[in-house]
Design goal:
Blueprint: H1 2-40, E1 43-46, E2 49-52, E3 59-61, E4 72-74, E5 87-95, E6 98-105, E7 113-125, E8 132-141, E9 147-154, E10 164-175, E11 184-192, E12 198-207
Parallel strand pairs: 6-12
Antiparallel strand pairs: 1-2, 3-7, 4-7, 5-6, 7-10, 8-11, 9-10, 11-12
């Protein structure tokens, strides 16, 4: 009887060890799957906009003048009815590889007026490499149709180390008291590295208030 009791104890210990190993393996597998999924779904949220995390273009915005507190320039906004100011730029903000120009809607009436504004942004290549095949596209979030991009161009399709390239974009803005706060146009600047990898920088024009 004593021998049989000892044998049972050993079997119990073996079962516990096997169960522990199985549980550890399951936890490890679940952890790896979770990490992989998190990397696959990583997004960058800028001013309420979720942007897919993509290879960043190694550039920095260049201020138009040393005493400027902005990184972009824009043409004057036309005045609306009765001399009411339609829009005004609040500020430029930089977060990661996204620069945002925030605009305030100055129209307080239901009367609508349309103005076309041109924005420019200069960025400098801070890497030791040359980037080619420059291109710019846009997406927008504007259910009312009050923000309508008309043209967007890059000054060059190639930017060497230390050189700059300028984005020029024209947007038709319809001023109205009912315009949705949070409406925006998002420009995606794309260049290709020497290794063939596409890298990106973003410029966003946002109705912030």
């Amino acid at each position: 009887m004593i021998k049989r009791e000892k044998f049972k104890i050993k079997r119990k210990k073996g079962r516990v060890a096997n169960i522990s190993l199985i549980l550890f393996s399951l936890v490890l597998i679940i952890t790896l799957i979770t990490i992989s999924y998190a990397k696959w779904t990583t997004t960058l949220t800028i001013e309420g906009t979720a942007i897919a995390k993509e290879p960043e273009l190694p550039v920095e915005p260049v201020k138009p003048s040393t005493d400027s507190d902005r990184f972009t320039t824009n043409t004057s906004f036309a005045t609306g009815f009765f001399g009411i100011e339609t829009f005004k730029v609040v500020e430029d903000t930089v977060e990661g590889n996204v620069i945002t120009t925030k605009i305030a809607n100055g129209t307080k009436t239901w009367l609508s007026s349309t103005t076309t504004a041109t924005f420019t942004l200069e960025i400098q290549n801070n890497s030791d490499s040359t980037y080619t095949d420059g291109n710019v596209t846009y997406t927008k979030e504007d259910s009312q149709g009050y923000m309508n991009p008309t043209t967007q161009t890059l000054s060059s399709k190639t930017v060497a180390s230390g050189e700059t390239v300028t984005l020029t974009c024209e947007v038709k803005l319809k001023a109205n008291a009912n315009i949705n706060i949070g409406s925006y146009v998002l420009y995606k600047i794309e260049f290709t590295s020497a290794s063939g990898q596409k890298q990106y920088y973003y410029y966003k024009i946002l109705i912030s208030e």
